């Protein structure tokens, strides 16, 4: 096997990068793929708690880079999915402890023995971000339908293009269909028109995500969650399947339907 | 028809539309690193240069950024003053 390296980035913090990384990884692993996640956020690691693996960390990525352990020793195997691994970030070091060429070398070592390598990029566009995109085959940019997140996503998309890692693919996270219907939240179409890149997935706001993060279990294993369904769809699209997008903001609500009668093209 | 309905429902005032319109402008300037004030200065200089060669209508000149996918385009619309009009005025 030769793994594909997918880097998840956003520019702005708090849009759901880590949750998206953990869930795409879990969905791929649940489908029988061998997946290694790398937490690229040195100094502010979080992928370990979101995946529920925080108690099992012995070595981290800086230990690997600085030769204090072998790569294998820093790979923590997931509790539920035997083909899912995490290489945690160092918590007490600064982001300069790892260089872009370290990341390329590390991923090259992992490539032959896995199907997917998912890198959770830190917020911002500095060293940690450069590290995270250096080995990427595919860059996934995640945003929320709001002005600051879309603006920062655009900046990241531009940088990814400049690094010749483009075109990036977009996930719009935390869509609130009710607000979209009222015209108080940007629609998927609005965001796509503004950013002008390919859509990889749309994820609705879902309280169950908070619950699953509290427990350290991936939402993709929750069959009732719409967000879980959205992340499972994203994982399938990454593998090349063509899966229709969830219908979240299409012509819902009485007002939208009445208006729809007057404009055959729909909203 | 749908424009009328939009007005009736106050669509243009809803915050999603405002967000989209504001973002359109911000992204154009972010991508080109050209601040809105600089675009005005560019327009003034452009008018001065072109006026040296041909008579134009300075008040009708429009210089705008346009987005085509992820490509930005600078569009200048510069109406020339008609020769006939010029003769009449002169």
Description:
The complex is a heterodimer of chains A (267) and B (90). Chain A is an alpha/beta fold. Chain A has one domain (4-262): P-loop containing nucleotide triphosphate hydrolases (Rossmann fold), CATH 3.40.50. Chain A contains 11 helices and 8 strands. The longest helix of chain A has 16 residues, at 147-162. With 90 residues, chain B is of the alpha+beta class. Chain B has one domain. Chain B has helices at residues 2-8, 15-32, 36-51, 83-89, and strands spanning 62-68, 71-77. In chain B, a hairpin with a 2-residue loop joins strand 1 (62-68) and strand 2 (71-77). Classes of the chains: A alpha/beta (267), B alpha+beta (90). The interface between A and B is medium-sized, with 25 and 21 residues.
Number of helices of chain A: 11
Summed up, the helix count of chain B is 4
Low-confidence stretches of chain A: 256-267
Distance between the termini of chain A: 44 Å
Shape of chain A: globular
Which sequence of SSEs, written as H and E, runs from N to C of chain B?
HHHEEH
Per the principal axes of the C-alpha atoms, what is the gross shape of chain B?
Answer: elongated
Strand line-up of the largest beta sheet of chain A: 3-4-2-5-1-6-7-8
User: Major sheet of chain B: size, sense and barrel closure?
Assistant: 2 strands, antiparallel
Oligomer: heterodimer
User: Helix/strand/pairing class of chain A, anyone?
Assistant: alpha/beta
Low-confidence stretches of chain B: none
Radius of gyration of chain A: 19 Å
At CATH level 3, the topology of chain A is: Rossmann fold
Mean pLDDT of chain B: 83
Proportion of residues in helical segments of chain B: 40-55%
The first-to-last residue Cα distance of chain B is 47 Å
Quickly count the domains of chain B: 1
The count of β-strands of chain A is: 8
Q: Largest sheet of chain A, described in full?
A: 8 strands, mixed
């Amino acid at each position: 096997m030769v793994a594909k390296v997918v880097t998840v980035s956003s520019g702005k913090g708090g849009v759901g990068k880590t949750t998206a990384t953990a869930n795409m990884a879990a969905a791929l692993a649940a489908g029988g793929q061998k997946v290694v996640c790398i937490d690229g956020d040195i100094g502010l690691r979080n992928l370990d708690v979101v995946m529920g693996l925080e108690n099992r960390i012995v070595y981290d990525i800086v230990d690997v880079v600085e030769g204090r352990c072998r790569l294998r020793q820093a790979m923590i195997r997931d509790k539920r999915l035997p083909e899912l691994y995490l290489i945690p970030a160092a918590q007490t070091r600064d982001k300069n402890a790892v260089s872009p060429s370290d990341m390329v070398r590390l991923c090259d070592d992992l490539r032959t023995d896995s199907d997917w390598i998912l890198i959770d990029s830190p917020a911002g566009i500095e060293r940690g971000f450069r590290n995270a995109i250096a080995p990427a085959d595919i860059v996934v940019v995640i945003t929320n339908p709001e002005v600051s997140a879309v603006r920062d996503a655009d900046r990241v998309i531009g940088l990814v293009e400049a690094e010749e890692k483009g075109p990036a693919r977009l996930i719009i996270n935390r869509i609130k269909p009710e607000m979209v219907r009222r015209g108080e939240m940007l629609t998927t179409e609005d965001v796509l028109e503004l950013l002008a890149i390919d859509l990889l997935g749309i994820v609705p706001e879902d309280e169950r995500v908070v619950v699953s993060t509290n427990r350290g279990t991936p939402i993709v294993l929750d069959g009732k969650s719409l967000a879980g369904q959205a992340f499972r769809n994203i994982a399938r699209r990454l593998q090349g399947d063509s899966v229709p997008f969830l219908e979240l903001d299409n012509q819902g609500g009485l007002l939208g339907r009445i208006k729809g009668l007057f404009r055959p093209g729909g909203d | 028809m749908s424009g009328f309905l939009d007005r009736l429902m106050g669509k243009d005032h809803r915050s999603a539309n405002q967000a989209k319109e504001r973002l359109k402008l911000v992204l154009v300037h972010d991508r080109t690193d050209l601040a809105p004030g600089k675009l005005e200065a560019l327009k003034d200089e452009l008018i001065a240069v072109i006026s040296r060669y041909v008579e134009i209508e300075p008040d009708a000149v429009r210089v705008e950024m346009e987005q085509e996918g992820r490509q930005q385009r600078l569009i200048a619309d510069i109406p020339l003053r008609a020769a006939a009009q010029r003769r009449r005025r002169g």
